[in-house]
TrEMBL record, chain B:
Residues 130-432 form the NADH:quinone oxidoreductase/Mrp antiporter transmembrane domain. GO terms for molecular function: NADH dehydrogenase (ubiquinone) activity; NADH dehydrogenase activity; ubiquinone binding. Keywords: Membrane, Transmembrane, Transmembrane helix. This is NADH-quinone oxidoreductase subunit M. It comes from Spinactinospora alkalitolerans. InterPro entries: NADH_Q_OxRdtase_chainM/4 (IPR010227), NADH_UbQ_OxRdtase (IPR003918), ND/Mrp_TM (IPR001750). The chain crosses the membrane at residues 6-24, 31-51, 77-98, 110-128, 134-154, 166-188, 208-224, 245-266, 278-298, 310-330, 342-364, 385-407, 419-441, 462-481. It is a multi-pass membrane protein. One of its GO terms (cellular component) is endomembrane system.
Length: 479, 502
């Protein structure tokens, strides 16, 4: 990688070193002192956040071998991924502390985060594949971390779907390579327009299948509800948030750079996927009673809104800033909602949240802010995200998609309100000795703190969105 | 930080303070709201006194603040008042003060209740002072959220369902509104969400189809909130099941957000589209007038009846604004009269319907029902109540000497020339509302006592009297001495009409 000083890759290095350090430390530490690995993970992700933030000031560049772009998309992705991983590690503190495999948890988390970052930055099909595998395999193990029946089933489902999509991704890479004669996006952008369009189309679809699986978009969304429900809650928070960041930036980059001149009707394809994701996710979420299943379907619908920016990429300048801002906003808000779920480990169904406002006002307010944030109510961050994404899509002439998205937003309100309402309602008389459904039985401290922080951050990022948007406005992606 | 921003954000600051002090007794929380609302109202009165007549949307905005907020999408923190918004700001501040006094009798979860209303107060005042579309939209959406929790948390009957219906309907509207705003933003050059700048540019003039689509999106959003026929179906259940103060705020303040949006956004920014489609608004207005009145006539439930008369009263406003669009080119004078009447009607309706909903709350507190057949002869045991009820009802039906008359007279006079047939039809609305209010008064106040034992029917308590009476008194004052109000509204109304005129 001559031409790029090693300092430019500090965030990735921090994650990798953190994973190795946690693995080594964990192997030689007695179980009751495994918490050390947690602080290694926290330190590594915090260092990655700081390095990524510092790197944003640098001019955009591509590594000399052309495989890895250090531009705005990568900067933001590694910032948000590292921050999301940091938050996950803190949320997990309540759940895995003293666990037999605590160090493994953190190692897998860090490796998954590293893979996600690599996906976001990859500007070469082979680097993308490597990132995909690195982002997938550790997370399969994380989903099954609890080793209970549900978790095992979830992990198996996730793994099978993931293996299938991985094969599709690889065959897509092969076909695109065959058609374009190269794997790096810069060359592909020149060769693909001349390549047979059917081969490009087939290759693109197969390649996308893998990336859509990572992001949880329709039609590769089947694993999300089961994995979210079966995995330990902190892992569920992680898999519904962090891998999406890498996958969506990768989709955007591939569509915008490699397919720039190809005859494939890429915007329409992305628009249809966007419409399908938001609609299916919303409809399926309507009557979910398990809060984690509800959040799982909600994340499928959110991908739809994010894909709108991908569809608008060619025609609207504001598509990239809107996508990146929405990703950051979604990460904060979704992690906040999951943090509430993690803070109340015994409340699994919506009915368990009845009267939460009386008993746990701070948790209840955080939850309300995060859920209304996911709807896109101003002035939360997702509202600004939606505003900019809608604007970009309308600017790109996708009026029908914006209308579909608006209708979907209203539909989504219905199920978020189904969850908010019990929180607000006065608790009925306690039902005898049935303390199991008592949401205030115990509150996980770390998760509770994160929930409040995330809710506040979601509001703060919305009200003070200006500097972030201004920063994102300036950059473009590099091939 | 001008006085206007203080007026807007003082309630929110008080709400944050209340949330931060967990051990505050309920009484203290309730009195905090009264104090804050009183200070806020006093500040608005001071602003009114210091207000020099502005010339409306394009200039003469008083107490203006313009800060950068999200420059990358062309949106800023831009607030200010002119003759269109200042009366509504004052009405809002007074209605919230009345609500605060009325709420002194609230016993259920008082702190959360007060916090919610303080939040709503900031949101409402913010909406009427916003001069940026995104800022407007933020407040518009938050008003829905706040009112949803008020209805769901403190309502009665099937409150949860009504609240959900209210939220879903108005949220659909708000998204249509957002699409319209984005349309305006994309059409403007340079792109901006600033209302003053957009009114100067009128970006969609000369683009008939785009203008019509954007006007459609904005109108649907505002019409749901207003509400006009056929978007009114959320209103009766929401009103019936909301707590008394919630209904008063919903009818008095939140409905005005829709009609205000028409004068503030639709007419000045889309003048050409407004002119070409003015007939649609006239028709919708007349249908709302007649339909609202007829359905109100059929009600046996006092609160539902008042709720439906709101549809009727909002219809007058839409009629006036539509007629102003038709008149614009030919007769600026008539158009100005119609728009002035429409804005006066917003204030009058806020005062009168606000007081009627508080009266309905009094009724419910005594007899546990809104069914008019369960009451009768209340004039004998509750003379103060009877006096206020009768005055408010007469004001609402448009009796001369009360605020409603001033408004409706101007609307009709201003509309008659440009839309004679619709205006003539709308006259019938007055007749029907007169009939239904007289019948309601007769059922509730006169005749023999029926229903529950009469010893519970004590006359108005101090909080009830001191919250309802000022609203009614002000409605009388406006009815007798309207100049102080009209002098503020008229220049702004003329500016709007001149903007709409070709």
């Amino acid at each position: 990688m001559s031409g790029v000083e090693p300092g430019a890759l500090l965030p990735e290095i921090a994650l990798a070193v953190g994973a190795v350090a946690a693995l080594l430390t964990g192997s030689w530490t007695p179980r009751r002192r495994q918490w050390v690995t947690r602080w290694i993970a926290v330190a590594a992700t915090a260092a990655a956040v700081a390095a990524a933030a510092a790197a944003m000031a640098r001019p955009a560049e591509v590594t000399a071998t052309g495989g890895y772009a250090l531009d705005l998309g990568t900067h933001l992705a590694r910032l948000v991924v590292a921050a999301g991983t940091l938050v996950t590690a803190l949320i997990a503190a309540d759940h895995v502390a003293g666990h037999r495999r605590e160090s493994e948890f953190h190692v897998l988390l860090l490796l998954g985060a590293l893979g996600t970052v690599v996906m976001a930055g990859a500007s070469d099909l082979l680097v993308l594949t490597a990132g995909y595998l690195l982002a997938s395999i550790p997370i399969y193990a994380l989903v099954g971390f609890g080793k209970d029946a549900r978790g095992t089933e979830a992990a198996l489902k996730y793994y099978l779907m993931g293996a299938l999509s991985g094969v599709l991704l690889l065959s897509g890479v092969t076909v695109v390579f065959g058609a374009g004669g190269a794997t790096d996006y810069a060359t592909l952008a020149e060769t693909l327009p001349a390549a047979p369009s059917s081969a490009v189309a087939v290759g693109t679809v197969a390649l996308l299948a893998g990336l859509l699986f990572k992001s949880g978009a329709v039609p590769a969304h089947f694993w999300i509800p089961d994995a979210t429900q079966g995995a330990p809650s902190p892992v569920a928070a992680f898999i519904t948030t962090v891998p999406k960041i890498g996958a969506l930036v990768a989709v955007y980059r591939f569509g915008g750079q490699a397919l720039a001149g190809a005859a494939v009707d890429w915007p329409l394809f992305a628009a249809v996927l966007a419409a399908a994701s938001m609609t299916l996710g919303n409809l399926a979420a309507f009557f979910q009673d398990d809060v984690r299943r509800l959040l799982a379907y909600s994340t499928i619908s959110q991908i739809g809104y994010l894909l709108m920016a991908v569809a608008a990429a060619r025609a609207a300048e504001s598509a990239l800033p809107s996508l990146l801002f929405y990703l950051a906003a979604y990460t904060v808000t979704n992690l906040g909602a999951f943090a509430v779920v993690c803070a109340l480990p015994r409340a699994r169904a919506i009915a368990d949240y009845i009267g939460l406002l009386r008993r746990r006002p701070r948790m209840a307010l955080s939850l309300i802010v995060c859920l209304l944030g996911l709807v896109g109510t101003p002035p939360t961050a997702v509202f600004i995200g939606k505003l900019t994404v809608f604007t970009a899509a309308l600017d790109a002439g996708l009026g029908w998609l914006v209308v579909v998205a608006a209708v979907n937003t209203v539909a989504s309100l219905f199920y978020y309100l189904r969850w908010i309402l019990p929180v607000f309602r006065a608790a009925p008389a306690r039902e005898g000795a049935d303390g199991a459904a008592e949401p205030s039985g115990d509150v996980a401290r770390w998760s509770a703190g994160i929930a409040v922080t995330a809710a506040a951050a979601s509001l703060g990022l919305g009200v003070a969105s200006s500097p972030v948007l201004g920063l994102l406005q300036s950059g473009a992606l590099l091939p | 930080m001008t006085v206007l921003s203080v007026v807007v954000f003082l309630p929110l600051a008080a709400a944050a303070l209340l949330l931060a002090l967990p051990r505050l007794p309920d009484r203290a929380a309730a009195w905090t709201w009264v104090a804050v609302a009183a200070v806020d109202f006093a500040l608005v009165v001071a602003m009114w006194i210091g207000y020099e007549n502005g010339t409306g949307v394009t200039g003469g905005i008083a107490y203006e603040t313009h800060l950068r907020w999200i420059p990358s999408v062309g949106s800023g923190y831009h607030v200010g008042v002119d003759g269109l918004s200042l009366p509504l700001v004052a009405m809002t501040a007074l209605l919230f003060l009345a609500g605060a006094i009325h709420s002194l009798r609230e016993r259920r979860r008082v702190r959360a209740y007060v916090v919610l209303f303080l939040f709503l107060q900031t949101v409402s005042l913010g909406l009427f002072t916003a001069l940026d579309l995104i800022l407007f939209f933020v407040f518009f959406d938050l008003s829905i959220v706040g009112m949803y929790f008020v209805i769901a948390g403190w309502g009665h009957g099937d409150a949860v369902r009504s609240a959900l219906q209210f939220f879903l309907y108005t949220f659909v509207g708000s998204l249509a509104l957002l699409l319209g705003f984005i349309g305006l933003y994309l059409a403007a050059d340079p792109r901006t969400f600033d209302m003053v700048e957009l009114a100067r540019q009128t970006p969609l003039d000369g683009r008939a189809l785009a203008g019509a689509l954007v006007l459609l999106a904005i109108s649907v959003g505002l019409a749901v909130k207003t509400p006009t026929v056929p978007f009114h179906t959320w209103l009766p259940p929401a009103h019936t099941d909301a707590p008394a103060v919630g209904s008063a705020i919903l009818a008095g303040v939140l409905l005005k957000m829709g009609t205000y949006g028409f004068v503030r956004i639709a007419m000045p920014i889309l003048p050409e589209a407004w002119r070409s489609h003015a007939m649609v608004f006239v028709v919708v207005g007349v249908v709302s007038v007649l339909y609202g009145a007829l359905v109100a006539l059929a009600q046996t439930d006092f609160k539902r009846m008042v709720a439906y008369t709101s549809v009727n009263h909002m219809g007058y406003i839409i009629l006036g604004l539509g007629a102003a669009g038709m008149a614009a080119g030919a007769d600026v004078q008539a158009g100005t009269l119609a728009v002035t009447g429409a804005v006066t009607q917003m204030v009058a309706h806020g005062l009168l319907t606000g007081s009627l909903f508080l009266i309905a709350g009094v009724l419910y507190a005594r007899g546990g029902t809104y069914d008019m057949a369960s009451y009768g002869g209340l004039a004998g045991t509750m003379p103060k109540f009877a006096l206020l009820t009768a005055t408010a009802a007469f004001g609402s039906l448009g009796l001369p000497g009360l605020a409603g008359f001033i408004a409706e007279f101007q609307i009709f006079t201003g509309s008659l020339a440009s839309a004679p047939v619709p205006t003539a039809l709308a006259f019938l609305g007055i007749l029907i509302t007169a009939a239904l209010y007289l019948r309601a008064l007769q059922r509730v106040l006169l005749g023999r006592r029926t229903g529950p034992a009469s010893d519970r029917f004590a006359d108005l308590s101090a909080p009830e009297a001191f919250s309802i009476a000022p609203l009614v008194v002000l409605a009388v004052v406006i009815g007798v001495l309207p100049r102080f109000l009209l002098d503020v509204i008229e220049p702004a109304a003329r500016t709007v009409v001149t903007l709409v005129a070709p």
